[in-house]
Amino acid sequence: MRTALGIVAAAFLGACQPSSDAYTLYRDSAADPRLRVHVATFDAADGDAYNRDNCRTAADLVAGQPGVTVRYWCEKGRFRA
Questions:
Q1: HSE value, Cβ hemisphere, 13 Å, CA-based, for 33
Q2: What is the Cα–Cα distance from 32 to 10, expressed in whole angstroms?
Q3: Do 42 and 57 contact (CB within 8 A), yes or no?
Q4: Who is most buried in 14, 49, 60, 63, counting CB within 10 A?
Q5: Residue partners of 33: CB distance under 8 A and separation at least 6
Q6: pLDDT of residue 20
Q7: The 72-76 sheet, strands edge to edge
Q8: Long-range CB contact pairs, 43-51, < 8 A, 24+
Q9: In three state form, how does the secondary structure of the chain look?
Q10: CA dihedral defined by 69, 31, 54, 49, rounded to 10 degrees?
Q11: 32-68, pLDDT tens digit by residue?
Q12: How far, CA to CA in Å, does 81 sit from each of 35, 57, 60, 66?
């Protein structure tokens, strides 16, 4: 029992650690183009290229919708204010 609990705790703590492979999708605002609004964080276990490509794909898909006037972009790493 103690070993299983230790494994679960280690897995949980490992999942909480920031990943160097994460990418975060941001957007600005039509009212203030200097604003950085967090949209999503991509942090799959499949690695840097996978997360980067998914973030860029999401940015392109959202930005390509009719009527979208804000800019979307990806930055390496987790959300930073």
A1: 3
A2: 42
A3: no
A4: 63
A5: 71
A6: 87
A7: 37-42, 23-27, 72-76
A8: 43/19, 43/78, 47/21, 48/20, 48/21, 50/21, 51/21, 51/22, 51/23
A9: CHHHHHHHHHHHHHHHCCCCCCEEEEECCCCCCCCCEEEEEECCCCCHHHHHHHHHHHHHHHHCCCCCCCCEEEEECCCCC
A10: 120
A11: 999 999 999 999 999 999 999 999 999 999 999 999 9
A12: 10, 23, 22, 28
Q: Give the phi and the psi of residue 43 in degrees, each rounded to 5.
A: -145, 50
What pTM value is reported for the model? 0.74
pLDDT in tens, 3-39: 444 443 344 444 455 558 999 999 999 999 999 999 9
Q: Token pair for residue 62? A: 């959202």
* In contact, 71 and 80? CB cutoff 8 Å: no
Cα dihedral angle (43, 45, 48, 53), rounded to 10 degrees?
-70
